[in-house]
Amino acid sequence: MLAACGGESGGGQAAVSSGKVELNLWTHDPGYVKTFTEQAKRLTDAPGGRYDYALKVTNADSEALVTRMISTGAAGRGTPDMIGIVISVFPRVMSGGIGKQLFAPLDDLAAPVKDDLLRTAPYSIGGTLYALESDTCLSVLYYREDEWKKNKIPADIATWEELVEVGAKLHEKTSQSLGMVSTGDNTSITNQFLQLLLQRGGGYYDEGGNLVLDSPEAVEVLEFMAKGVQSGFLIALPDPYGAPNTAALKNGKLISTVMPNWYNVYGLQANVPEQKGQWKIRNLPKFAGGGHIASAMGGTGFAVLKDKPGTAAGSPSTSCPRTTGTGRSRSRSRPPTWPPTSSAPSWPRPGARSSSPPPYTPGPASPAAAPTPRPRAACSPWPASSPSSTPRTCGSTSSSPGRS
User: Fold this and answer.
1) Please, is 183 exposed, middle or buried when counting C-beta atoms within 10 Å of its C-beta (0-12, 13-18, 19+)?
2) Which residues, in sequence order, are CB contacts of 375 under 8 Å at separation 6+?
3) 105-148 per-position pLDDT tens digit
């Protein structure tokens, strides 16, 4: 991870410039614990390394961790050195001056490789970059190869319009579906819609920042989803990750779905391990009206807290991982570097209704206890096989979290 180098540390503690350093890492995903722990060891063992790293990890839901970070930041003590924030939770630190007060800016260190970073806007505040994305969470089409072959569905079908026609006939014959639509919580509903909208070439806002939910692309995608449910091509599920989805996978009612790379581990390997080797992935079918062959859903940005004793240690070099087509990172023959690189209220005060949150001001209050984490994070970017025109077997993919 690329972090900003700190000068003097706040809170009366001297900044650590070499030797032993303990970094407090807060993350929602156990996979990141392994990734950062392994990288810390590599950095410690690297010839000429300045630091002897030790990680102290707090693992909980991303939204709960952000709430705790803001509370401890206001108290003036107890904040982490690094924190991973899910993309849907990051807006909480974008208002009231929270992010600017707490995070080290990363623009200078990211500048040499800024063209290699796929997304920076979601983690920028007022034009300044405050977190680096660890995974773009590319969306692909997962499909049951055995069921598709049995039902004579071409694996290289080119467009959604063709697949809709095939799927409607399949459902009428076998009651199976070739995709799903979420009908439960608002975050899942909007994520499923946005995933397809981005593929179609649309978005919630235009380049001028205007809300464009009535754009031709948005209307087309919404009609596509509605007609898909009506024909049975798409199955409506109240929870696209929980028990309803697992049941649809296990009983063979859902034999393909559009999901990001992390779905391989959290959706398939976790819930239907007996189907190992039966699932493959491919690029998304294209919309006839235009768009792309892939999309994205989710993401996690890692930020470094500024003016901490370990701020400088969070930036052992100015090199930055470079994203490859596989969604993993690569460095350009450089020494080991720090790893890669639900809507929520903008201000975490219970019952607050003001549309303009007060400025964030650190203070000497007592640290608040961390909220009880929810069992599932918004987004856990574990790697899946790379999207390719050539199908890849999901079951053969390693579950090791080698993120970008």
Assistant:
1) middle
2) none
3) 999 988 998 888 888 999 999 999 999 998 778 999 999 999 99
